[in-house]
């Protein structure tokens, strides 16, 4: 598959530090976000995650669709800005910090994972009247199969237009499929590699996070998405498919 190529100068550069994995270079130009790979493969991972959500029938407004590309000769991906002109994205971290002055991750780390999930759901409900059960359930269902080990409180949140709140679409799935996972490299067997991945929010177990909210989950992820994923035909894709075959057993 021929990747689109973009040449973007530094006047459009945005350096973001909202990830627990460090600062990432992004560009914002003409209503599009461009993200450079940091470890190699994040752009493809973003694309595969959006294909999975698209193939399982999730409404297009509830997730960000990514397209792999080359940015100034380097691999990455791009996506449309999910905000309208009158909207602002507020992370769960920022919402909690603004209201309480405390760090949400620190507060949740002192609780059992199920109590922490309910605590966050109730806090968001009190502040915005939003019920985020389904939002979290679908996010964790995706993370369980793609092994997203960088899902933190700065890439989950809400959108506010000055009057109403709504949940943000699912986005920022690049640190998945063991990309950037140094511990996984010491194993040859895919099952052993998978054991090195841990969730960030709430429980370190992807399965426990997903299972706790399973009754609210509306996405049904299956291996039917593999045909669409296979169109890229790269070594990275081959390993991603092996991971999906394991996590969807």
Q: Output the CATH topology of the domain at 88-221.
A: Phosphatidylinositol 3-kinase Catalytic Subunit, Chain A, Domain 5
Q: What would the principal axes of the Cα set say about the shape? A: globular
Strand order of the largest sheet: 1-5-6-4-3-2
Rg estimate, integer Å: 18 Å
Which strand-content bin applies to the residues?
15-25%
Largest sheet: 6 strands, mixed
Q: Total number of helical segments?
A: 9
Structural class: alpha+beta
What string, H for helix and E for strand, traces the elements in order? EEEEHEEEHHHHEEHHHH
CATH class group of the domain at 88-221: Mainly Alpha
**What is the number of strand segments?**
9
Kindly state the percentage of residues in helix. 25-40%
Q: Write the CATH architecture name of the domain at 88-221.
A: Orthogonal Bundle
Give the terminus-to-terminus CA distance: 29 Å
- Average pLDDT: 93
3D structure, described in words:
The chain has 249 residues and is of the alpha+beta class. It has a domain at 88-221: Phosphatidylinositol 3-kinase Catalytic Subunit, Chain A, Domain 5 (Orthogonal Bundle), CATH 1.10.1070. 35% of the residues lie in helices and 16% in strands. The chain contains nine helices and nine strands. The protein has a six-stranded mixed beta sheet with strand order 1-5-6-4-3-2. Strands 7-8-9 form a three-stranded antiparallel beta sheet.
């Amino acid at each position: 598959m021929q990747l689109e190529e973009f040449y973007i100068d530094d006047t459009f550069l945005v350096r973001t530090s909202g990830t627990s994995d460090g600062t990432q270079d992004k560009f914002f130009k003409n209503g599009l976000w461009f993200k450079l790979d940091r470890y190699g493969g994040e752009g493809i991972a973003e694309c595969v995650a959006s294909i999975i959500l698209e193939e399982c029938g999730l409404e297009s407004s509830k997730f960000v669709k990514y397209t792999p590309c080359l940015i100034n000769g380097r691999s990455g991906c791009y996506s449309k800005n999910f905000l309208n002109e009158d909207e602002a994205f507020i992370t769960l971290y920022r919402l909690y910090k603004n209201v309480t002055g405390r760090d949400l991750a620190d507060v949740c780390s002192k609780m059992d994972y199920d109590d922490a999930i309910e605590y966050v759901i109730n806090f968001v409900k009190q502040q915005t009247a939003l019920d985020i059960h389904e939002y979290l359930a679908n996010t964790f269902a995706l993370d369980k199969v793609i092994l997203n080990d960088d899902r933190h409180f700065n890439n989950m949140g809400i959108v506010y237009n000055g009057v109403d709140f709504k949940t943000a679409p699912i986005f920022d799935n690049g640190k998945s499929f063991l990309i950037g996972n140094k511990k996984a490299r010491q194993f040859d067997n895919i099952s052993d590699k998978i054991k090195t991945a841990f969730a960030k929010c709430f429980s370190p177990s992807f399965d426990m996070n997903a299972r706790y909210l399973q009754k609210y989950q509306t996405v049904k992820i299956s291996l039917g998405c593999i045909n669409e994923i296979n169109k890229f035909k790269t070594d990275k894709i081959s390993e991603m498919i092996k991971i999906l075959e394991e996590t969807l057993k």
